[in-house]
Amino acid sequence: MVRLHVKRGDESQFLLEAAGSTRLAELAPLVARIYNGRLKVQRLCSEMEDLAEHGIFLPYNMQGLTDEQIEELKLKDEWAEKCVPSGGSVFKKDEIGRRNGHAPNEKMQQVIKKTIEEAKALISKKQVQANVCVNMEMVKDALDQLRGAVMIVYPMGLPPHDPVRMEFEDKEDLSGTHAGLEVIEESEAQLWWAGKELKETKLLSDYVGKNEKTTIIVKIQKKGQGAPGREPLISHEEQKQMMLYYYRKQEELKKLEEDDDDSFLNAEWADNHALKRQFHGVKDIKWGPR
Fold first, then answer.
1. What pTM, to 2 d.p., does this model score?
2. Cα Rg for the chain, rounded, in angstroms?
């Protein structure tokens, strides 16, 4: 199996294994599917952290309003009584005003937070460093774990407008958001390797040869964006380490220059003939009138 190190720009995303006989018309959408799946897991984890801290999402017409404004406008959250967390709730006001503040109790919060950590670990970029390949099954497992945690904590379900439920039902609206810009539609996905566009009409082996143990770095782009930029010869972290090294070297050279100062040779204690003159009684002889 050919190992693909998938990147978006200069940033590593995940490892994926594919047979050399795989058609690129099938491989590009698969890479996009895994890439978008990982983004969905990350969005869900972010929203579920807020869910654990501040409870369910408020109706859109109540978000950002103060308690006085809600009372004055006679608005009511009809879902607050229906979507009660298991074991009761603990009030923790959402300062942003997006959620109703009726958070799950400590035990249920831990259920959500622990599941978030496990789901993040499954699709983490650290899997690249650990040499672990990610596939669509792992992404689905992460989503199923998150869905299970929400069902445990909220057995009655979430409001239809809650971002967590909308993500699970694939009804999320990402238009006009940064998260929406990150998504690459499967039909728009394009793979690049070594500055070359991998044509959909060809096989993977047409580019990398018959060696199934090859590892290549591919970059995923949207069609029409052109070739991705070349990566710098050294990473940002390596550049920082080099600058630190040369700074320390410069400081050491400064100290050495200070140590090379020979003005001390004019001092009395540095005179090689001082002891000899003292024995001959010719020390402190001054020439000239007194």
1. 0.77
2. 33
